[in-house]
Amino acid sequence: MHSVKKVLLIEKFTIEWLIHELTPDILELIELKFKEYGSKGVDIVNFVMIFLSMIDHQEYETLYITMGLVDMFKELAENNRETNYVKYTDVTWMLVDV
């Protein structure tokens, strides 16, 4: 029974779910955090930490949300032909494309 719950959590915390969680208030806070890192953008570690701090979740969900955030970072980086950094504008473009 426990493993069934893990499968469901993996399926729940997708890029689409993450995008759905990004309210205008959260996006504003994320933008402020990104500005702290300058024009270069944020690396994957800071990206995950920023989003995890903004998305309300239970502790047991952290790993699954992190997996979704890693997927999101990879997709953003690939779309920008950048592998190490993502800018806030990349996130907003993803929102427009959805």
Can you describe what's shown?
- With 98 residues, the chain is mainly alpha-helical.
- It has one domain.
- Helix content is 70%, strand content 0%.
- It is built from 6 helices and no strands.
- Helix 3 packs antiparallel against helix 4.
- The longest helix has 18 residues.
- The termini are far apart.
Q: What's the count of strands?
A: 0
Q: Report on the biggest sheet.
A: none
Report the span from N to C terminus.
Answer: 34 Å
Helix content: over 70%
What is the overall shape?
Answer: globular
The number of helical elements comes to 6
Topology:
Blueprint: H1 2-12, H2 15-21, H3 24-35, H4 44-54, H5 62-79, H6 88-97
Helix pairs in contact: 3-4, 4-5
Give a summary of the structure in a few sentences:
By secondary structure, the protein is mostly helical.
Which keywords apply here?
98 residues; 70% helix; mainly alpha; single chain; globular; 6 helices
